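Q: I'm building a small set of examples for a reading group on sequence design. Run inverse folding on the following structure and report the sequence directly after it, with nothing in between.
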């Protein structure tokens, strides 16, 4: 199986200045994704061979899509593996560009560059440092086993729209979904997409597929409060949560400790 690992990040940030090149708990934020990939490859016994990462006939490539020269410089200095740089076109650098279009661009350009076809594209969100090697492994195994068009990571939701979420209407506030449930336990299980891990079937991407139609699967990750790094206080809160997880759950600390300290 040929797998393309992808990370992506645009220049600048409206919510948190220079988010994609900032340190998170004393380590560059993008290195957490590369550390997770590095540990996964070591776990399965994939090794560098003539500048490529191989395990038997399988190959594993890592690529970055960005329009940020600062991020490119940071990634080139990473201590883990060679990362192919995909410079984004202007058309793919706007605020409203769909992530699937960026991933499709990386896939097609990497297949042309490497002269191979990939069986899976695994995207690790650059701004989601709290994941484990087991999460990456579960994602890849689930995608391979099921053949889903997209497999993504979720966590159990903290608020169930069938029971305790409301919307504003012309008559005040009312339940988001009108039901007769009287207890949360009666409602269907609902999950939050935590925007951490995605595995794409290349054929789905090449056909222009996204989340509108297709066959999708999910892996359940540990609930780390599902924080999106959109504001400065999000960054500070996630660092506090990370400190706790590093101490209480070694599997989270593994990725952190795999990143060398800055000198």
């Amino acid at each position: 199986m040929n797998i393309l690992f992808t990370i992506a990040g645009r220049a600048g940030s409206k919510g948190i200045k220079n988010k994609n090149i900032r340190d998170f708990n004393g380590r560059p934020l993008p290195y957490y994704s590369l550390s997770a990939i590095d540990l996964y490859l070591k776990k399965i016994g994939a090794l560098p061979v003539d500048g490529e990462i191989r395990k038997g006939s399988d190959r594993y490539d890592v690529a970055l899509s960005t329009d940020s020269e600062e991020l490119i410089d940071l990634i080139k200095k990473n201590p883990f593996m060679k990362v192919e740089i995909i410079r984004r076109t202007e058309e793919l650098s706007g605020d409203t560009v769909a992530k699937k279009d960026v991933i499709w661009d990386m896939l097609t350009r990497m297949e042309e560059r490497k002269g191979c076809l990939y069986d899976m594209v695994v995207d690790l969100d650059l701004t989601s440092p709290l994941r484990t090697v087991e999460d990456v492994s579960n994602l890849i195994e689930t995608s391979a086993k099921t053949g889903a068009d997209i497999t993504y990571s979720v966590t159990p939701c903290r608020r169930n729209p069938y029971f305790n979420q409301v919307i504003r209407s012309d008559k005040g506030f009312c339940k988001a979904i009108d039901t007769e449930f009287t207890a949360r336990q009666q409602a269907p299980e609902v999950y939050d997409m935590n925007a951490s891990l995605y595995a794409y079937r290349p054929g789905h991407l090449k056909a222009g597929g996204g989340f509108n139609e297709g066959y999708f699967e999910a892996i359940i990750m540990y609930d780390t409060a599902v924080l999106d790094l959109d504001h400065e206080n999000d960054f500070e809160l996630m660092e506090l949560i990370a400190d706790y997880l590093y101490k209480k759950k070694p599997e989270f600390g593994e990725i952190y400790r795999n990143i060398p300290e800055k000198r």
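The first strand starts at residue 3 and ends at 9.
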